[in-house]
Amino acid sequence: MKCGAVKQLIVCLLSLWLFVSLGSAAGTHLGLPSAPFVDAEDIPAKAELGRMLFFDQRLSANGRVSCASCHVPEFAFTDGRARSIGINDSVEGTRNAPSLLNLAWQGSFFWDGRASTLESQVLGPLFSPVEHGLSGAEDLLNRIRQYKSYEDGFSAAFSVLPQQISQHHVASALATYLRGLVSADSRADRYMYGADSSALTKTEIEGLNLFVGRAGCATCHKVDTEAALYTDNQFHALPVSFARFADKLPGVIERISNASEVELALMIQTDLEIAALGRFAVTKVPAHIGAFRTPSLRNVAITAPYMHDGSIGSLESAVEQEIYYRGLVDGRPLILTLEEKLALVDFLKALTGFVPDKNHQNHAN
Ligand code: HEC
Ligand code: HEC
Fold it and tell me: Residue 106 C-alpha to ligand 1 middle, in angstroms?
C-alpha cells in the first residue's frame, strides 16, 4: 500500500486500523487475554487429527482407554473421580485429573509443573503403564497405521505417507488440538468484561467483591482489569496437606534423588507419598514441599472433586477449606459469615463458560 499524499495517508491509517482490529478480534475470547499461542484455528487439519487421537480408545493396550476416559468434555475435561483410574481398572492413581481448557495460557503442565511444553507432555499418558499402557513408539505407530482415517488425517496435517508418521507428528497434533480447547464467555466474564450489568445476580456480585477484595482469593486466582485466568500459574504450599507424611520425608526424598525423569514420572503416578511432595519432586527446593499449581477456577462448578488429590468432594467444602487455610498461611485468619461464604460459592458457579466438544464421543472398534 502506498501512503504518499495526506489524503491517502488518512485512508491508509483507517485501513490499517481496520486490519489490526479485525485481526485481534479473530483471536479474542471474552474474559481471556489475547491468545498467546492458539494455533488450532490456523491449522484446522492438525487440530482435527489431534481430536481423532484424543478420543481414540484403540490407542491403548486393552482398547478401552482414551485421553477422554479421564478428560471428559462434559466435566470440562476432568473425570469426576477423586483420583483417575487408567488401564488397571481397579487401581486409583495419585492425582485428580485437571481440566484441559485454556492450556494455551498455561506456562507449565501437571499439578507440579513437571512438563514445560504440551508437546513434551502428551505422549506420556500413551506410554505410561498405568494410563494407556502402550509399550512404546512402535506400538503406537503400528496401531495408527492400520486405519485409513489416520492415513488421510496425517496426510492432510503433515503431508506424510503412513510409513513416515512419527511420534512427533502424534505429539504435535495432540498439542495443537489441546491448545484450541478454549473456554471463556461465562456470565462473570459478561458482567466484568462485556458491560452486561445484568449478567450476575446481587449475591454473585457480592461474591465477586469478596473474591477480589477482603477474601484475598484473587492474589492467586488472578483477576485483571482486562481479563481473568483465575490462576497466577504459580505453586503454593499448604502445610496440612503434607503434615501426614512429615516423618517419612527423609526416606521419600532419598528415593527420588537418583531417579531419571521417566522413573520419577512413574513414581509420581503410582506412589502417594511421592505425589504429595508436589513441586519439590521437580525442583528439590525445600520451600516447594507440598506446593501445587494454582488451578484456574473457570468451570469449577463442573470439575468436582477438588484439589490435586481430589480429597475435597464439594465446591462448598473447597471454598471453606481455602478460606480457612489460605488465611492461616497468611497469618491473618479470614472470618466470613455463612452468607458471605455462600456468596463466594455462587460467584464461582458463574464462572462456567462455553465448553468445546461437549458432545464428542469416544471412538472404539
Ligand atoms: C488414566 C487417566 C488419564 C488418561 C488416560 C490421560 N490423562 Fe491426562 N492427566 C491425568 C491426570 C491424573 C493428570 C494430572 C497428573 C499430575 O498432575 O501429575 C493429567 C494431566 C494432563 C495434562 C496436564 C494438564 C495441566 O493442567 O497441567 C495434560 C495436558 C493431559 N493430561 C493430557 C492428556 C492427553 C493428551 C491424554 C491422552 C494421550 C491423557 N491426558 C490421558 C489423567 C489421565
Ligand atoms: C496462596 C494462593 C491461594 C489463595 C490466596 C487462594 N487459593 Fe484457592 N487454590 C490455590 C492452590 C495452590 C490450589 C490447589 C491446592 C491443592 O491442590 O492442594 C487452590 C485450589 C482451590 C480450589 C479447588 C479448585 C480445583 O479445581 O481443585 C478452589 C475452589 C479454590 N482454590 C478457591 C479459592 C477461594 C474461594 C479463595 C479465597 C478465599 C482461594 N482459593 C484463595 C491457591 C490459592
Answer: 14
In angstroms, what CA-CA distances link 164 with 51, 135, 138, 193, 218?
20, 20, 12, 47, 48
Q: What is the rounded distance in angstroms from the CA atom of residue 158 to the CA atom of residue 326?
A: 48
Give dist(CA 281, CA 64) in Å, integer. Answer: 31
Q: Is the CB of 110 under 6 A from ligand 1?
A: yes
Amino acid code (one letter) for 118: L
Taking Cα atoms as reference points, which of 360, 232, 353 lies closest to residue 302? 353
| Closest protein CA for atom 12 of ligand 2 | 294
Cβ neighbours of 59 (radius 10 Å) = 24
CB of 126 sitting under 6 A from ligand 1 = yes
**Contact at 8 Å (CB) between 245 and 254?**
no
Closest Cα to atom 34 of ligand 2: 217
Please say if the pLDDT value at position 43 is more than 50. Answer: yes
Q: How far away, in angstroms, is 55 Cα from ligand 2 center?
A: 30
Q: Give the number of the ligand closest to the Cα of residue 342.
A: 2
Q: Is the pLDDT of residue 24 over 70?
A: no
- C-beta 79 within 6 A of ligand 2: no
Cα(329)–Cα(212) distance, rounded to whole angstroms?
18
User: Does residue 311 have a pLDDT over 80?
Assistant: yes
pLDDT at 3: 43
Quick one: which ligand is closest to 112's CA?
A: 1
- Our answer on whether the CB atom of 343 is closer than 6 Å to any ligand 1 atom is no
User: Lowest-pLDDT range, 7-16, 155-164, 310-319?
Assistant: 7-16
Average pLDDT, the chain: 89
CB 105 within 8 A of CB 183: no
CA distance 98 to 77: 7
Cα atoms found within 13 Å of the Cα of residue 53, Cβ hemisphere only: 31
For the Cβ of 98 lying below 6 angstroms from any atom of ligand 1, the answer is: yes
pLDDT at 10 over 70: no
* For ligand 2, atom 11: residue with the closest CA: 294
Question: Chain centroid to CA 26: how far?
Answer: 22
